[in-house]
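## retry 2 of 3
previous attempt timed out at serialization; input unchanged, resubmitting
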Amino acid sequence: MNIYPALRAQMGSWNYYTVKMSVRELSENVKFAYEIYEDRTLDEAIQRILNQRRVKTEIVEYLKNQPNRFFSSIVVAVLNGNPMFYPIEITDAPEFSIFRDDNRLNETFGVLRFDGTQEYYALDGQHRLSAIKMLLDRDNQISDGAPEGFEKDELSVIVVVPSQTDSNETFLQKYRRLFSNLNRYAKPMDQATNIIMDEDDTLAIITRRLITENSFFKWSGRARESQKIKTEKGKNLKTGDSYFTSIETLYNMNIALLSSPKRLTHGWGYDNEEGLNFKKFIRVRPSSEEYIDSLYEELKIYWDGLLAELPVLQNTPSKMRFHEITDRNNNDGTDHLLFWPIGQQMLAEIARELLNKRLHDQENPTTETVGFALKGLNQLEWQLHQSPWKHFLLVPSISARTGKRSWTMRNQDRTKVVRHGQIIQQWILGLEYDDADFVNNLKNQWESFLIPGDLQPEGSINQSWQQTIEELWQQVEDKKSAMAC
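## retry succeeded, writing output
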């Protein structure tokens, strides 16, 4: 016989109870959803829903390393066991006299009893259950890493039971439908919310700190237009947006800036502790707050260096994103790559390459050494209506509805084009090879992506367009020559 203190509730056609179980009890008694199928084909098909790699690398690591570990309720269906609920009378207590004529309390609190023949199956929380079983399995070497006292941890378990009118077959159909619905409609938090809320991801922590403490990113809280960072879901920015960038892009830029060769090779970590790969590192908050502070101070130095080298970043963002630079509503705006997310990520990655090459003491960057390492970024061409970007990343288009010609950020092959544009910028800065074959291939690949202004059919290249190509590439080479001086 099994007895649990329980809260009784009902939703739709379901009767359910909230009880608590220790992780040991959960591990020993609760089975997986796929075990409900007698047919082996369906059994194995459902079993594949369990991502064991995610269980081992994410959830098990979380349980092992997070003293403040916490799980939300696991939903469990119970077959057989003759479940009986015995309500407990509590309205005789003076403080509950107000509920004497209200059965809500008397019907809610009680004891749930099974006769011992019941079988539990996890409807929702199978990955969490798998991690618990893995940590408590004495035949599994991972079990050695179970934190002290783990098997006594208690979890909230929502127990779903069949109604008295449900046959076993009917309940199994309802059970499988509930399993499908719980998993189909579950929606993970978006990245922006994760960055705002996560107290274990060190990069999220210092990204928030940068926004709240650094004068460039900090919002005064007055006019909405003065908010520098977009905190809503999505990286994309629009023409006229007042934001400098999104919190998601800033987070990714910070990762790029801090990805030093040592961290990429030996792992992320803290003094006297083993380095972790990045995915593991962001799942567990460092034990040393001093380490978080030091990482923030390092990041702050990099941003101070970027802002000093690129004063254009201080410009009003709403005036820096106009593809149509002749638009009369432009208000002397421009179209600047460093105010679009793809250009900002490119900037962070190029800056990291410069730091890798020019920063002699990678472990102890200073304002002076970082400032020297980032020299030249301001001399690169970042205006989208200039080469190498015009006809390459910023391309002509014709409206299917109006027939009007305009400029737009290309969609086709965008990832390849952005990557090649970054290589061109790095070549100008002296971060790439400089032999004749490399330069020839660099130009030919750039040229292969160009879209002519008059949108000529593919394979139809007139002399005027070929001359334009040569002039555009000459501007790139002139940048390279000027950088060498």
